[in-house]
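Subject: Predicted fold for DUF5659 domain-containing protein, 89 residues

User T.R. writes:
Posting the sequence so we have a shared reference for the thread.
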Amino acid sequence: MDSYTTQNKENVHLEKDQRLIIFLLTSSKVSYIGTKNVNGTILFKFSPKEAAKDEINIFYSGKCLVEAGKLLDASVRFKNELFRAKYNY
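User M.O. replies:
I've generated the structure tokens; pasting them so everyone works from the same file.
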């Protein structure tokens, strides 16, 4: 199991085959579900088993929140706000 420490010293533990997805906020007016860090990022844990081959559905607490584009680098819409997505492996 991998562990990451966020900017606000929160530990994020990833189970086997999970990935950490960091969404960079482009607007401070966004309401969201997830973990916001002091540097303005939102963290989601993501399992490849929940995704199609070329597209990602991000699940958090059992709900599909957003759909991302291609792997590795994607622009995604969440509550009609544009985010940049960065995938840490």
